[in-house]
Amino acid sequence: MATIRISDHDAARDFAGLLARVRAGAEIVIESDARPVAVLHAPLPPRRSIEECISLLPADSSATIDEDFASDVAAAVEAHREPLNPPAWD
């Protein structure tokens, strides 16, 4: 992601242009007297808490969260580290 540094005066003159650059993936650092005062970037995707994830489980799920849960998740992630090689479509 490209980082663009711009003065507060220039940012005020072309805010719509800055938003277009953010939509294209850039991060904008707005500065006043060469000091950063604001950063514009696209929002991060929403994340679910563990409580929200648990509430989405079916009622008959056998999933449990115990003292080994974190190590179980880490082991599952490590077991599936192969590169993604999707098939080539015609």
Highlighted features:
36% helix, single chain, 90 residues, alpha+beta, 3 strands
CATH topology of the largest domain: YefM-like fold
First-residue to last-residue Cα separation: 31 Å
> How many domains make up the coordinates?
2
Number of helices: 4
**Annotated CATH architecture of the largest domain:** 3-Layer(aba) Sandwich
Mean pLDDT: 86
Query: What summary fits the major beta sheet?
Result: 3 strands, mixed
Helix- and strand-based class? alpha+beta
How much of the sequence lies in strands comes to: 15-25%
- Quick one: how many beta strands? 3
- Low-confidence residue ranges: none
Q: Strands of the biggest beta sheet: in what spatial order?
A: 1-2-3
Bulk shape? elongated
Multimerization status: single chain
